[in-house]
């Protein structure tokens, strides 16, 4: 019989993989719209767009950089300074559009944290 931690370990890996699949297929057109709005010329998001391209790994990397932009903006102190290297939000983005990038990436990171923390703490 599986314990709760074993269930969490078994469930967290497919959730993380499904979130990546969701990011690169369903959510990516909206992420590209955000990227177009905040990726001003010469900033990191604009460079990442050109460098990684539109393949599956490129879409995932581009999504991670847009997520990092929004995450760094929330960190007090140096966060906005770091976020300004990524891009500029010249016009306020609607919350619904921001959620298309933040929720799937947060689910991916949370699933990864659960998978690795439980996996490393289990005794076999």
Overview of the structural elements:
The chain is mainly alpha-helical. The protein has one domain (4-121). Helices cover 77% and strands 0% of the residues. It has helices at residues 4-25, 28-38, 44-52, 56-73, 79-86, 95-121.
Layout of strands and helices, then pairs:
Layout: H1 4-25, H2 28-38, H3 44-52, H4 56-73, H5 79-86, H6 95-121
Mean pLDDT comes to 93
Strand elements, count: 0
Q: Strand content of the residues, in percent?
A: under 5%
- Count every helix, treating DSSP H or I runs of 4 or more residues as helices: 6
Q: Helix fraction?
A: over 70%
Uncertain regions spanning at least 5 consecutive residues: none
Distance between the termini: 14 Å
The computed structural class is mainly alpha
Main beta sheet: strand number and arrangement? none
Shape: elongated
> How many distinct folded domains?
1
């Amino acid at each position: 019989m599986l314990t709760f931690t074993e269930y969490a370990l078994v469930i967290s890996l497919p959730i993380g993989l499904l979130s990546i699949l969701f990011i690169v297929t369903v959510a990516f057109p909206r992420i590209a719209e955000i990227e177009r709005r905040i990726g001003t010329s010469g900033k990191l998001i604009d460079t990442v767009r050109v460098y990684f391209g539109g393949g599956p790994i490129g879409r995932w990397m581009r999504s991670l950089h847009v997520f990092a932009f929004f995450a760094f903006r929330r960190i007090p102190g140096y966060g906005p300074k770091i976020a300004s290297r990524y891009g500029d939000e010249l016009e306020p983005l609607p919350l619904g559009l921001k959620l298309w990038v933040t929720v799937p990436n947060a689910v991916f990171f949370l699933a990864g944290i659960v998978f690795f923390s439980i996996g490393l703490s289990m005794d076999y």
